[in-house]
Design a protein that fits this description.
The chain is α+β, with helices and mostly antiparallel strands. The protein has eleven helices and twelve strands.
Length: 473
């Protein structure tokens, strides 16, 4: 295992070099190296030019000094004069005749044998531009026969050493600057990649199912804005999943409730069918009662199917609502008249109060009749004998209102928020009255399709009021 790990380490190192942090460090070091190279080239060119000009001036001065000495020491032997001139000039001094033939040279007091031919290159380390030749001032005829010119050469040793020292200093400075630039690149890369790594880690945790994962949002720069955007997306995703879970739970409850609602009529129909088919019921009155009860159960199944279909259409936005300008008074009057028979059978007083002038609204007459009918039948169902139900139609501001107020038992405060949920029947009424729990959800869907609202206020022991509001025409 250790050998395999060591074998993988170079690949990990190469992979790390491809990271943003190392790319910044290498880029900064490369820019520093390029800048140092350009600056070093410029500095070395200027230094060489300045040293060369300085050497030219200095060598000219030495040549003039040597020529002046040789002129003043014209009576002295040539080697002795050259040795003295070399000492004063601190360089090699040569005497040449008029034809350019070197007669003798001396360096720091050391005599050099005379040359019988024109002098070749004096030194490999001496360039021709460094050779300064000065004429001996006002030579006599005898002197011209001895020498006419002096030559002073200065080696490149000092200048080369100076250039080498400056070059070494520039190289060291370049290495230091490259190291500093690489360090700054690493620090800057660390500052940039740390939040990116945190964002990547948050995205990885979010992808693995942790919907609470959030990225740090420090700073107001682009990375901070990216973190804010990521957290906003994560929050929306979490809300979406919560909504999906809620809808899934609602769907499960809906299916369970629908199965329960369908089981009762189906069981009753199966029982009636078995009894009738087996001839177990000989009494015609009982048989007729079974048939009538079967018809009621079939009607109930049809009602459930139609209401479920309506709810699904409203939820999907497929329900057709033909809105037009209508007077609500005839619609409310018709539904109230149809419901009066049921109210009278139960001993409930049903009273309608409508204005003498039309109450116009933008609505679908058939859908509004369905919604109002559900509300009114609900009120009759929950209002006890000798109770009262009042229906009022009026215009209030920019809305038209249909009020249905009863003197029933009322709805407890803890049940009131749930009355528009499908198949919901509160514990206080589930056993006392029937119902499927679909009436009010359908009413709310119809009102929302009309850009209207349904509001319910209730007080236990005092009754309930339902208000249907529509945009006025």
């Amino acid at each position: 295992m250790s050998v395999f790990y060591l074998a993988r380490r170079p690949f990990r190192f190469l992979r790390a070099l491809r990271s943003l942090q190392w790319q910044l460090a290498v880029s900064y070091a490369a820019m520093a190296a390029l800048l140092c190279a350009v600056m070093g080239f410029v500095i070395m060119q200027d230094l060489r030019h300045d040293l060369l000009q300085q050497d030219i001036a200095d060598t000219g001065r030495r040549a003039a000094t040597a020529a002046d000495l040789l002129y003043r020491e014209s009576g002295t032997s040539l080697p002795a004069a050259l040795a003295e001139a070399s000492r004063l000039a601190e360089a090699r001094v040569c005497a040449l005749n008029a034809q350019g033939t070197t007669l003798a040279c001396s360096v720091a007091g050391l005599d050099v044998p005379a040359q019988t031919s024109p002098m070749p290159a004096i030194d490999d380390q001496v360039s021709p531009i460094e050779r300064q030749i000065g004429p001996v001032a006002a030579p006599t005829a005898n002197q011209r026969t001895r020498w006419a010119l002096v030559q002073v050469d200065e080696p490149l040793t000092d200048r080369n050493a100076t250039e080498q020292r400056v070059q070494n200093a520039l190289i060291q400075l370049s290495l230091i600057l490259m190291a500093v630039a690489a360090g700054m690149g690493l620090l800057l890369g660390l500052g940039l990649t740390a939040p990116l790594r945190a964002l990547t880690d948050a995205a990885r945790r979010l992808g693995s199912g942790n919907l609470n994962a959030r990225a740090p949002q420090d700073g107001d720069d682009e990375i901070g804005e990216l973190g804010v955007g990521f957290n906003r997306m994560a929050a929306q995703l979490q809300d979406s999943f919560a909504t999906l879970e809620s809808e899934r739970d609602t769907l499960r409850t809906f299916i369970a409730d629908m199965s329960h609602e369908l089981r009762t009529p189906i069981t009753a129909l199966r029982t009636f069918n078995d009894l009738l088919s087996q001839g177990a019921v000989a009494d015609e009155d009982v048989r007729d009662e079974f048939i009538n009860e079967s018809a009621l159960q079939i009607e109930r199944l049809e009602w459930l199917a139609q209401n479920l279909l309506d709810l699904s259409r409203f939820d999907a936005g497929l329900a057709e609502v033909h809105v037009q300008r209508i007077d609500l008074r005839p619609l409310v009057q018709r539904v109230t008249d149809e419901a009066k028979l049921s109210a009278e059978r139960k001993g409930v007083d049903l009273e309608l109060d409508t204005p003498s002038i039309p109450v116009f609204a933008h609505a679908d007459a058939a859908r509004m009749q369905q919604a109002f009918s559900n509300v009114l039948l609900n009120a009759i169902k929950f209002t006890p004998t000798d109770g009262h139900i009042g229906v009022t139609v009026r215009r209030e501001g920019k809305s038209t209102m249909i009020h249905v107020a009863d003197t029933g038992p009322g709805i407890p405060p803890d049940e009131l928020p749930h009355i528009f949920e499908r198949f919901y029947r509160g514990p206080s009424t589930a056993t006392s009255v029937g119902g499927s729990g679909l009436g009010l959800p359908i009413v709310r869907s119809i009102m929302h399709a009309h850009q209207g609202e349904v509001e319910v206020t209730s007080e236990v022991g005092a009754g309930t009021e339902v208000v249907l509001s529509l945009p006025a025409a």
